[in-house]
């Protein structure tokens, strides 16, 4: 009560209140605190929330398509919009990295084991063919009838028919296979003993520390990209127990992870509590009592 109101109260004068204060205090507050009004408002909010979640999950893909991440009506947006509408059946290629530096690519048994694991990615509902330098290399050597396990001790220091010599000087030097240079990472140096002209000599040479291959993805849309991502990651995790560290990535995976987290983030208790506190601060005591039950 201000100074003017105190004086008026001492002299028994009536202090008129604004009609808006009277309306909220006498009428609107009683309506809001009425049980049936609260029940009706709660039911309407539940219907609204259920409808919003249903549309978000089954009909809307806002923020989860690549086209939503670029400026509207830009060249990229126009292209991605057409791509997502007509070419999603055959989409991008996922990259799989073999990061174990201890893999012995010279061992024919190890190479067959790697190829067997890689080709397993072709037999799923979301993948088609792999693009793997090792697969092309094995076919290339078979066509040339070259046995990589044979060594010629009298030619080029025992390296004429070894795996690394053939890989670098023949396979990667061929025009249509040069692109695979980007899929191989060489490290230096590995020591090994070789017999050169009947003498035992210790040589140092580079070796493959990591490599990668690609698998073509198909039938992946926003409604099933999460299931595809988890399936492929599970396969990579299983084969990692055999071949060592393996990693897989595709441009659609961040969108799938966003799809997995969007509802859990919204309904996380701490986040929901923050939303209700914000409503309480913004709407005042009566709305705060209604929404937050405080």
UniProtKB/TrEMBL annotation:
Transmembrane segments: 35-59
GO cellular-component term (any): plasma membrane
Signal sequence coordinates: none
Keyword Transmembrane helix: yes
The keyword Membrane appears for this protein: yes
GO BP: endocytosis; molting cycle, collagen and cuticulin-based cuticle
Record's keyword terms, sorted: Membrane, Transmembrane, Transmembrane helix
Annotated PANTHER family: PATCHED-RELATED, PATCHED-RELATED, ISOFORM A
Protein name, UniProt field: Uncharacterized protein
Organism for this UniProt entry: Romanomermis culicivorax
């Amino acid at each position: 009560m201000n100074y003017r109101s105190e004086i008026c109260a001492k002299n028994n004068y009536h202090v008129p209140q604004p009609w808006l204060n009277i309306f909220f205090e006498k009428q609107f507050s009683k309506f809001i605190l009425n049980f049936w009004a609260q029940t009706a408002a709660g039911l309407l909010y539940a219907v609204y929330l259920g409808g919003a979640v249903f549309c978000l999950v089954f009909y809307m893909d806002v923020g989860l398509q690549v086209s939503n991440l670029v400026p509207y009506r830009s060249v990229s947006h126009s292209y991605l919009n057409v791509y997502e509408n007509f070419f999603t059946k055959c989409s991008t290629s996922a990259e799989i990295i073999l990061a174990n530096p201890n893999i012995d690519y010279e061992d024919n048994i190890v190479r067959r084991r790697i190829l067997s694991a890689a080709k397993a990615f072709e037999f799923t509902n979301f993948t088609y063919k792999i693009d793997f330098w090792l697969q092309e290399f094995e076919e290339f050597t078979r066509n040339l009838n070259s046995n990589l396990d044979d060594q010629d001790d009298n030619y080029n220091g025992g390296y004429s028919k070894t795996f690394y010599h053939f890989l670098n000087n023949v396979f990667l030097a061929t025009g249509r296979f040069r692109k695979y240079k980007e899929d191989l990472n060489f490290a230096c140096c590995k020591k090994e003993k070789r017999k050169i002209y009947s003498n035992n000599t210790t040589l140092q040479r580079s070796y493959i520390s990591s490599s990668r291959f690609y698998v073509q993805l198909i039938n992946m849309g926003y409604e099933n990209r999460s299931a595809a991502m988890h399936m492929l990651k599970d396969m990579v995790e299983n084969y990692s127990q055999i071949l060592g560290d393996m990693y897989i990535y595709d441009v659609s995976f961040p969108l799938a992870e966003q799809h997995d987290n969007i509802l859990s983030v919204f309904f996380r208790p701490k986040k929901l509590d923050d939303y209700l506190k914000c409503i309480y601060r913004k709407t005042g005591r009566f709305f705060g009592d209604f929404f937050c039950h405080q």
